[in-house]
C-alpha cells in the first residue's frame, strides 16, 4: 500500500523519528493532539477532511509534505506553505530530496554554499538563485526561464550556456526546450516527465539517460 511504501521510505532516513502511520485523518489528528511533531506527510484527497483543511489545524511550525496522485493542486499547496509536493508513487531519490529540504528548513535559515548558487543577470541586475530550488529551465527564444516553486525568473541566456552552468550530476537536458532538476522529478515515461505539477515533453533518446541518472546501476 501507499502507506507501507511511505513508512518504508521514512525508515531509510535516520534523521526521521516515525511517530506513526495512519489510514485516516481522524486517527492521525487525534495522535497529533498527543505529541509534538515537526513533519507530517499526507495525501490531499482524503475521506471526511481534505489535506488542505487538515494542515490548517496544525501548529504553525509543523512542516507538511503532500504525497498525492493529483498534480493540479501543486501551486495551491505551495501557497499554503507546504515544504514539498510529491506525486505517487514517489521515488526514493525524490523522497530523500523532500526530507533534506524539510531538515534544512527545520534547522533554521540555511545559507547555501557558493557552489549551490547560480549567478544570473535578470532585469539588468546580477542576482543569485539557489540551484536546489530550480524545478526546470525552459527555453524562450533568446531567453531562458528558471522555474522554482515560488517564482519564474527570465534570464538572457541560451539553453546551451545554462546546461554548462548547472551541475551535470543534478540536471539533465531532456528536450531542446527543457532542462530538469533530477531531484525534483516525480515520474516519467518514454515521452514526458512530471515535475512540480506539470508534464514536460522528453525526447525518446533521453529516457535511458534519465533512468541511469535516477537509478544508477552498481
Write the layout of secondary structure elements.
Layout: H1 2-11, H2 25-32, E1 39-42, H3 51-55, E2 63-68, H4 74-79, E3 84-87, H5 92-106, E4 117-122, E5 125-130, E6 136-140, E7 143-147, E8 152-155, H6 159-165, E9 171-175, E10 178-181, E11 185-188, E12 192-195, E13 198-201, H7 207-214
Parallel strand pairs: 1-2, 2-3
Antiparallel strand pairs: 4-5, 6-7, 6-10, 7-8, 9-10, 11-12, 12-13
Characteristic terms for this protein:
OB fold (Dihydrolipoamide Acetyltransferase, E2P)
What do these coordinates show?
- The protein is of the alpha+beta class.
- The chain has 2 domains: 105 residues, 3-Layer(aba) Sandwich (Rossmann fold); 101 residues, LytTr DNA-binding domain (OB fold (Dihydrolipoamide Acetyltransferase, E2P), Beta Barrel).
- β9 and β10 form a beta hairpin.
- The mean pLDDT is 87.
Short description:
The protein is of the alpha+beta class and 218 residues long.
Amino acid at each position: 500500500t501507499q502507506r507501507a511504501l511511505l513508512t518504508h521510505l521514512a525508515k531509510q532516513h535516520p534523521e526521521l523519528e516515525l511517530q506513526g502511520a495512519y489510514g485516516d485523518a481522524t486517527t492521525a489528528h487525534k495522535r497529533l493532539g498527543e505529541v509534538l511533531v515537526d513533519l507530517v506527510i499526507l495525501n490531499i484527497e482524503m475521506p471526511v477532511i481534505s489535506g488542505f483543511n487538515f494542515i490548517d489545524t496544525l501548529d504553525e511550525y509543523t512542516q507538511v509534505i503532500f504525497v498525492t496522485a493529483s498534480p493540479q493542486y501543486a501551486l495551491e499547496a505551495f501557497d499554503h506553505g507546504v515544504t514539498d509536493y510529491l506525486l505517487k508513487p514517489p521515488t526514493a531519490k525524490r523522497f530523500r530530496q523532500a526530507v533534506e529540504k524539510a531538515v534544512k528548513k527545520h534547522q533554521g535559515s540555511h545559507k547555501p554554499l557558493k557552489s549551490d548558487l547560480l549567478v544570473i543577470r535578470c532585469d539588468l541586475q546580477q542576482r543569485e538563485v539557489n540551484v536546489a530550488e530550480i524545478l526546470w529551465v525552459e527555453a524562450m527564444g533568446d531567453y531562458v526561464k528558471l522555474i522554482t516553486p515560488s517564482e519564474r525568473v527570465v534570464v538572457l541566456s541560451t539553453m546551451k550556456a545554462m546546461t554548462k552552468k548547472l551541475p551535470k550530476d543534478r540536471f539533465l537536458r531532456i528536450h531542446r526546450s527543457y532542462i530538469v532538476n533530477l531531484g525534483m522529478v516525480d515520474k516519467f515515461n518514454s515521452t514526458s516527465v512530471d515535475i512540480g505539477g506539470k508534464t514536460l515533453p522528453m525526447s525518446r533518446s533521453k529516457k535511458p539517460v534519465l533512468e541511469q541518472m535516477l537509478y544508477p546501476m552498481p
